[in-house]
Amino acid sequence: MGAPPKLSRAPLVRAPGESDDDAHARFRREKCIGVECDGDCLNRNMEIECDPATCPMGDKCQNRCFAARLGSKVSVEKAGRCGRGLFAREPIPEGAFVVEALGELISEEEAQERLATARANGDEHYYMLAASDAATKGLVIDATRKGNEFRWANHSCDPSCRLEKWRCGSQDRYGIVALRSIKPGEELTYDYRWASFERCYCGAANCVGVMDGVKKNPVGAAAR
């Protein structure tokens, strides 16, 4: 029996004189056929924010959380042995966008230099997130000097949120989304999946003791 035939992606059918970008925009527009950008929205399922120029929902589109800054109400409070943490100030439903991860976009080499300097100075508070996909390979988001509330979101082995990467126009943007319904006053955490084996103080019943979710390079996520 011979080897199975190689599969290839079907080509996008373009109208005469239509560019690839316009064809993709038309394809997304034609597939968004619901009454709102809900779970049936093709863009939402692919973690792509809708383009206001092509989304048939227009101003009613709810799939532009990053662009419209539609995050949840949060606050920074004391979090026991973890120092400070990020907490919900309102009920947050499952799947809701919580907050964007903002910071300086630097090279991995510069991130390693900053980490070495911080450790040499006895500073254990640094907040870095690896942006290591095909488009941003080797880049790191450093929220230590410049950033927002996201930097205070602690690690947990049983997190209330997950980190997601969304495509917004020509940019990749990162943020945390609620894994379940979250009550006001509840801490907002996510799994750092960090590789440096830092001690974990999340207190979850399934806590593994260290932040070792993915054993890759040491610039993997924020640290406390």
Automatic annotation (TrEMBL):
<dbReference type="Pfam" id="PF17907">
    <property type="entry name" value="AWS"/>
</dbReference>
<dbReference type="GO" id="GO:0005694">
    <property type="term" value="C:chromosome"/>
</dbReference>
<protein>
    <recommendedName>
        <fullName>SET domain-containing protein</fullName>
    </recommendedName>
</protein>
<keyword id="KW-0808">Transferase</keyword>
<feature type="domain" description="AWS">
    <location>
        <begin position="25"/>
        <end position="70"/>
    </location>
</feature>
<dbReference type="InterPro" id="IPR006560">
    <property type="entry name" value="AWS_dom"/>
</dbReference>
<dbReference type="InterPro" id="IPR046341">
    <property type="entry name" value="SET_dom_sf"/>
</dbReference>
<dbReference type="InterPro" id="IPR001214">
    <property type="entry name" value="SET_dom"/>
</dbReference>
<keyword id="KW-0489">Methyltransferase</keyword>
<dbReference type="GO" id="GO:0042054">
    <property type="term" value="F:histone methyltransferase activity"/>
</dbReference>
<dbReference type="InterPro" id="IPR050777">
    <property type="entry name" value="SET2_Histone-Lys_MeTrsfase"/>
</dbReference>
<feature type="region of interest" description="Disordered">
    <location>
        <begin position="1"/>
        <end position="21"/>
    </location>
</feature>
<feature type="domain" description="SET">
    <location>
        <begin position="68"/>
        <end position="193"/>
    </location>
</feature>
<dbReference type="GO" id="GO:0005634">
    <property type="term" value="C:nucleus"/>
</dbReference>
<dbReference type="InterPro" id="IPR003616">
    <property type="entry name" value="Post-SET_dom"/>
</dbReference>
<keyword id="KW-0949">S-adenosyl-L-methionine</keyword>
<dbReference type="GO" id="GO:0032259">
    <property type="term" value="P:methylation"/>
</dbReference>
<dbReference type="Pfam" id="PF00856">
    <property type="entry name" value="SET"/>
</dbReference>
<keyword id="KW-0539">Nucleus</keyword>
<keyword id="KW-0158">Chromosome</keyword>
<feature type="domain" description="Post-SET">
    <location>
        <begin position="196"/>
        <end position="212"/>
    </location>
</feature>
